[in-house]
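Anyone able to model this chain together with magnesium ion?
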Amino acid sequence: MNTSLKHLLLGSVAVCSLSGFCSAQEYLNGIEWKQPPIVTPGSENHLPPSDAIVLFDGKNTSRWENGEKWKVVDGELVVGQGTITSKDKFGDCQVHIEWSAPTPPKGSGQGRGNSGLFLMGIYEIQILDSYDNPTYFDGQAGAIYKQTPPLANANRKPGEWNSYDIFWTAPRFNEDGTLKSPAFITAMNNGVLVLNHFELLGDTPFNQPPKYRKHDETGPLTLQDHGDPVRFRNIWVRPIVPVEGKQARPPFLRNGNKETPIAQ
Ligand code: MG
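re: yes, here you go
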């Protein structure tokens, strides 16, 4: 089918839908989809849905390596000595994490309310008290450290809670160690988009250019100890399971009993 005819068909369907007067003709894509799983959302959007892996629910640090070196105070996880690393490992995933910078604020720039969340233990999205606290832009809260600033500074005041919702696509590697496909990240800070399908250039060290090095298909989440008593709550993860479908037959149009294949 030529392109203009395709457009005409699509157009006629659209007009039909918008006008409210529909012809009997229906487009069918021929794909048999697997039924999407039923997920019961949290009672509020920041609380874990039914299928989430809860890494911190206010009680203890049992799901973290080195967790005993951090403190749980009034249901909040406070940065202690050394990084902590989740015992669970993830590839593509959705991450929710809430954090609050120390109050009253102490220090300036990178020395104020600094922590960080490392996806797969390697790739840092910066956690920093960026409320009225200038620093280099690709080091402020919501930055992929030393790679890109966030699209916006949406931080709340120190002492208030910030909420990251992160959508992570893990990098893929070839057998020989070369990069097959890079990592991508989309993230919101307090409901504001701060990273939009950003393509990572590699890891995020302070003193080296970013670089990819082959690693496992899954990895842990790591939280950084940067010497500041940043607090955390409501940390949960949902592995991203792709939709499944199989092309059972080629796409077609149906009008009553009449089926017309769509030329590819
Ligand atoms: Mg940091």
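Residues 1-15 have pLDDT under 50 and may be disordered.
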